[in-house]
Amino acid sequence: MKVKSGDMVFPGDFLAVSEEVLPSEGTYDEDGKIKSLVVGEVSRDDRNKSIKVISKLNTPPTLKRGSRVIGEVIDVRGQRALVRIHSIKGNRRALATYFVGGVHVSQARKGYLSKLTDAFRIGDIVEARVTKIMGLDGIDLQTSGRDLGVIKAMCTRCRHFMEVNGRDEVRCPNCENREKRKLSVNYEG
Ligand SMILES: [Zn+2]
Fold first, then answer.
1. Record-annotated residues binding Zn(2+) (predicted)?
2. How far does the centroid of ligand 1 lie from the alpha carbon of residue 172, in Å?
3. Which class is domain 8-55?
4. Domain 68-180 in CATH 2.70.70.10
5. Which parts are annotated binding residues for Zn(2+)?
């Protein structure tokens, strides 16, 4: 059954195959199948061969490739740091859907990073760029770039927020602990 403009769809619903149309806002490509990322109404443009889903919730900042997001680091394990995405930068409204993205160790900073805990720790607030959306749990993020990375670092010893103490190093004003981070120039500490 062909999905057409005006149809209501839900996250994960099949919309079209990627040979037919290009995925746009509110959609993602999973192995050549374009699916909906949000609850919304399909808008299919056959002339430009693109398909999008317009969120029907009243708070619709939808995530797309290239979006800059603000989130909280909820886990740092092996090659991937998990980030709970709170908002899209420049948009004060919280996202309507719950998203978790991941920063792979190779995407954390320019150059070699021996371990991810030298870039992020649980509780840090980061600014990142969305590089790929492969579904609700398959959001890839990148923090390499001067204005990307940690904007608030939390001390692993006492959970206090930390101050910048030189290049990619932070210091806890409460317990004097020093730690490494991939810092953004927009650090708010
Ligand atoms: Zn501390």
1. 155, 158, 172, 175
2. 5
3. mainly beta
4. no
5. 155, 158, 172, 175
